[in-house]
Every structure is written in C-alpha cells, then in structure tokens.
C-alpha cells in the first residue's frame, strides 16, 4: 500500500527550507498562513462578513486603463520568486499576479478554472482530466503558447525535484524542496508511486492526473500558488539565477516582473498578452503594481493616510474604525481562513496524553489505544480555563470568533449541532484538575516572538491562572517554535524528554476545501501538528475525502466533528479577520479569505 507520509529526512529538509518564513505546513501553503506584526489574520466567523465591508466592487464597464497601484506589505519575501520553491506569504502575493494555476478560488470561495477551462469532474474522485485553455502565452522572452506538455513538465518537477536537478547544471532544485508537493503524499508521490506515470498529457491541451487513491478535494488542491505553471526553460537556462531579486521570474499572469530590491519594494508591469478579458477590454487594467515592504503597522497606516500607498495589506484591528472614518479611505474587515492555535503535546507530554499507552516513535501508521480519560480531562480543563472571548476582544478588538472546531462557521461542512464547545468556566476547569490530581498544574507554552502570539499567550496565561493553572510563556523565533514539532516529526508525536515541548502558540492557514481543514486532525497526516489520531474519526474523514457527493461528505464530516471536538486535540483560540485599508481610488478590489491572495487583474485606479 502506498505510504501517505513524508519521511523524517524530508521533514527536516522542509523545516530548513521554511527557515524563518511566515508559513509552515501544507495548509499554510494552500491558503497562506499570516505572520508578521500580529495585527491581522484571515478567517470568518458567525454573523460576520457583511457584503459592504469586504469589497470595493464597481461597474466594470466604467473601468479605466492605466495607472499604478502601490501596496504596503508587512513582510519581505524570504524565498526565491519561483513558485515551486516558495512558501512565504509575501512571495505568494507577488507571484499570484505573475502566474496562473490550473484552478483558483475566487473571493466568494468558489472554485473556478484558471489555466484550465474549469474544474474537472470525476466519477471516481481518482482520475481528473483538465482541459487547458488554448492561446495562453508565457511572458517575454518565452512568449510561446502553453500546452499540455508544459503543464506535465511543471508537475513532474513539483512532485519529484530530482528530475530537474538531474537534467540541469543548477543545484537549486536540490537546495529547495518543492513546496507544491506537500499536499499530495499518497496521491501523486510516496512509496510505490511513480509521479511521472500519474501525470500525463492525454491531448495537446489536456492533462490527466491519476491519483493513487480517491480525493474529492483534488481540483481545489491544485489551485495553490506553488503549483503555478511556468516556462521550465527559464530554469533550465538560468538555474542559478531564476527567482533572484535582480533576475526575476516568469509565468503567464496579468503582470510581469520588472524590478525589485530586497527589503524595499518590487514592481510588476502590465502583461500586454494576458489571456483574460474583462467587461471593458483586455486585462489587466493597470499599468503597474508596486509592493512596498513596510514592517511597522503604524507606518503602513500613516502611509495609507498620506496617500503614499493605495492599499495596506494588513492593519491592526484597533485601526479599522479610524481608517473607515477617514475621508478617501476605506477599511475592509472580512472573515478569512487562518486560525490561531494553542497546540498541546498530546502524545509526548503525560498530563495531556491522548492514549494510556506510550507514544510509538517511528511507527509507520498512527497508533491507537485506550483513551486516557485523565488526559482528556486535562485538555478540557485547559479549554475551559481559556477565556477565548477575552482574547478576541482584547487582542483583536472583537474582529475574530472563537475556534471550537477544525472548520470555521462559514464553511459548508460546519455543523453547530455536532460540535462540543468549551466556553470559559474556570470552576469546571478546577474540578477537572482536582479529579486528575493536578491541582496547581504547571506547564510551559512556547510562542513565536511576534505580538500576535506573545500577546495572545499572555492573555491566556492570565485567564488559566484563575483556574489554578500556571502557564509559563516562552517567546521564541518561529523556527525554534516549529522546530521540535516538524524537525522531530513522527506519525505518533514529539518526545517531551528529547525536546521539552509541552505546548505552543502559532497560526496556520487553510480554506480550500473541508478536507484541508480536517487534514489537521487526520491521524498520520503530514500536516497534523497536534498528532491527533482516532480510528473512528480517521475513517470518517478518509471516507469524506473519497466521495464526490457533498451531502454524504457533510454527514461524514458531521460525525467526525462530534468525535474530534469531544476529544479536544488542541486548544483552538480564534479565527481572526482579514483587516485591510484601501484608498477609494482603488476600484473593483475584493479581499479573499487569505490576506495575501490578491487578484489585481480586474482592479483599476480612479
């Protein structure tokens, strides 16, 4: 049977690849984990996201051509500007303007065709054939038509980096594991799977994917930016330069790379041969887009108010009302798809342990056993001792919702009546501590050294103290927080003896399909950073991934929600909003659930 797990060496290499970026894990790459100064995130919540607060749509028949848009970004890109290697949110924002994937998720969360004419249907959720649009041109100087062979060559390189490393003199494909392969273990790569046989041209403009097992979410998974289609000869001819700031990158998108300076700004110019049209002619409407790196949130807000930038990628929650009341400006606050988590070491740290048996390092599949009832009570105690609403009001100025389930309230698989919630109840938390003999319980929580995480951890520290818990907050660099979790990754957890890891605060992005969210609690899955596994919920989630009937999927996911929320695999904190500030001169701009997911081809400047 094909393995669905990346091996430990690959995991460590991947951590090295991520370095200090703002993104970790496949879900992060799929939808874009937020990071930086901790002012915003992306998420949605119950009763939020009013139509008049998340868009600047206008009558496109009045669209005017020309003009330049300047966007203030909170962080610089950290990876090469080559999609197969890039995993940071800022680089993804740039490359979305320059490149296209087979499908994409629009601002309404609907899946559409991009380079493909539309999302393909599949009777068995295992064989998918994409019809490639004819006449699409790569950027100059590779201005030739994109064919099925180009798509196949890209995907072979994504799934097996050694293919390119062996065929060129460059070493970058060896140095940078391809980020785009991580959503597809057990589907298109892994033990016993030949990636080249799984992806092939079935016509001049037709590409077929034969998955090793059914997956109903596959058409959405191929929309991640790391699976963009690029002219592979650009790498083959310039293996040691491609993606560098002073060299550039190439794709099929609305804008072409012009110039950049690390830590300062990056400018993209209009692609005159872009294949999409709008209501008022060929896209894009604007002549150029400049991304300016402005790490300090207060400076971004000031630059927006003075007109030095037209859009602030993120603004603090506390500034939303002020921006919205400023003449010529508008604040956009929209629920999104990332979630702020308090992870617990449920396999390696005894007080939180999932099963009575010791965790089994190096096991080829997730270990199950007898539920440790005391561990379950301790995890519930932490949930009940965490005042989620206080975090939301204090840190996010009310622009977030509590995270009670693996999926957010806006997702079609969310089912209120199937979820166990844990509202703040320090007395009940103390009761659980007493029942387990853990009065005066002490533990540590690592927090990525950014205001979002340290501030949140500090608030939680204060609220759990009311239940008799003592939580020490230890700020660390991002790679140091994730290092033990990913660097020592094993199907069945992380050793407390080896790492000292007990809990940590971080966020991660999701949002393409319910399968993306549920993968984080699927036993043995490579992005399951809480290392939760339960035979019944695992079976339900796997079955839901394999059927194309949405009602059947919803019922299966509902059954899984009952099990997972009762078991408390992690102390989910909240789903924060995407908060952005935009000039009223920017027309037809829509915010996506992930803050870096700009689509600027149909935007114009008035």
TrEMBL record:
UniProt keyword Signal present: yes
In terms of CDD domains, this protein maps to:
PBP2_NikA_DppA_OppA_like (cd00995)
- Keyword check for Repeat, yes or no: no
Highest taxon of the lineage:
Archaea
Biased composition, Low complexity: where in the chain? 55-65
Q: Name one GO cellular component term.
A: periplasmic space
**Keywords on record:** Signal, Transport
What InterPro entries does the record point to?
Peptide/Ni-bd, SBP_5, SBP_5_dom
Region Disordered: list its residue ranges: 32-65
Annotated Solute-binding protein family domain residues: 110-522
In the record, the note on similarity to other proteins reads: Belongs to the bacterial solute-binding protein 5 family.
What is this protein identified as? ABC transporter substrate-binding protein
